[in-house]
Automatic annotation (TrEMBL):
Positions of the DUF4371 domain: 2-117
Protein encoded by which gene: PRKRIR_27
Listed name of the protein: Repressor of the inhibitor of the protein kinase
UniProt organism field: Trichonephila clavata (Joro spider)
InterPro entries, per the entry: DUF4371 (IPR025398), IFN-induced_PKR_regulator (IPR052958), RNaseH-like_sf (IPR012337)
Annotated Pfam families: DUF4371
Signal peptide from the UniProt entry: none
């Protein structure tokens, strides 16, 4: 099929799916708008629009749904234009905005501003559409502040460079894979994960995989450093950085912190989560963090013991 026909088929499928989604939304008593901006591969800013609502099938239990209803290309990121395109899209979908009881965006001023943000402009016409700051985004912002601590920032910088070395250079990756095959053949992890700047779920996964393959990483870096490749000096530098006490302690701290925040982050992104449960879960995590702070000596002793074990087993040195 030609590109034109392919696009027509895709558009037809989209229209059919969207029509069925809108039928369900129209039967709901109320709904909320969820919006977020991102740039596509062509460099065009796109607004992703989703609708959160209760679907009540005949003679069945209600189902909480979040359905995607389209991307909207954005050329003007002012709050006025964003509010207009959202309302225009809702009008095109024949959504009854008097049923809109909520809005969920990130905390950017043009979206969340209480004077002239998107949420304020929409509430001027539909006052029941209460704004709720995306809880997972708030958690990410909080964790981003943690990343500003120099020791943690430097640690994640080393992890990122190691990941890039093995993922971007075939020779380095070959040695890494051979090392895994020889020294950790039973490991299900065969590839390091990149650190995502915004999604801390992926950061935690990256740290977990890094620690699981830490021994193989160190051995591979050491072997690459002995070669005469252009990346050998980089491998030598990273090998030295990975055995410093600051790095070892920091990466164990990250793993311990993320082990608490990861389940919360996953929960907050679950479409079936509700506000009461989210607040309860967040308070439980906060309580655990406070307990760690109150028993700081015991907590750090545990962290130091894990870091010391890495140092002794991998580098034959004491912290």
């Amino acid at each position: 099929m030609s590109p034109i026909i392919q696009n027509e088929v895709i558009q037809t499928c989209s229209d059919i799916v969207t029509e069925k989604v809108i039928d369900r939304i129209s039967n709901a008593e109320c709904f909320s708008l969820l919006g977020d901006e991102t740039m596509d591969v062509s460099g065009t800013e796109q607004l992703s629009l989703c609708i959160r609502y209760f679907d009540i099938p005949d003679l069945q239990a209600p189902v909480l749904r979040e359905d995607f209803v389209g991307f909207i290309p954005i050329t003007d990121q002012s709050s006025e234009n964003l509010a207009n395109v959202i309302l225009q899209r809702c009008d095109e979908l024949n959504l009854d905005m008097t049923k809109c009881v909520g809005q969920g965006y990130d905390g950017a001023a043009n979206m969340a501003g209480h004077l002239s943000g998107v949420q304020t402009r929409i509430r001027e016409n539909y006052p029941k559409a209460r704004y709720i700051h995306c809880a997972s985004h708030r958690l990410n912002l909080t964790l981003s502040n943690v990343m500003s601590v120099p020791a943690i920032r430097n640690c994640l910088g080393v992890v990122s460079q190691v990941v890039n070395l093995f993922r971007n250079h075939s020779n380095a990756n070959k040695i890494f894979q051979e090392t895994i095959q020889e020294h950790a053949p039973d490991s299900k992890k065969k590839r390091l994960l990149r650190l995502c700047d915004t999604r801390f779920i992926e950061r935690h996964d990256s740290i977990i995989v890094f620690l699981e393959l830490f021994e193989c990483i160190v051995m591979a870096l050491e072997e690459i450093a002995q070669r005469t490749w252009t990346i050998s000096s980089t491998a030598s530098t990273l090998h030295s950085a990975s055995q410093k006490s600051e790095f070892l302690v920091s990466i164990v701290v990250c793993e311990k912190l993320f082990s608490l925040t990861l389940p919360l982050s996953i929960f907050l992104q679950n479409k079936s989560s509700d506000l009461v449960s989210a607040v309860k879960y967040a308070n439980e995590v906060l309580s655990s963090l406070r307990q760690m702070r109150e028993t700081a000596n015991d907590t750090f002793t545990e962290i130091f013991q894990v870091a010391s074990k890495f140092s002794a087993n991998l580098f034959d040195t004491e912290l």
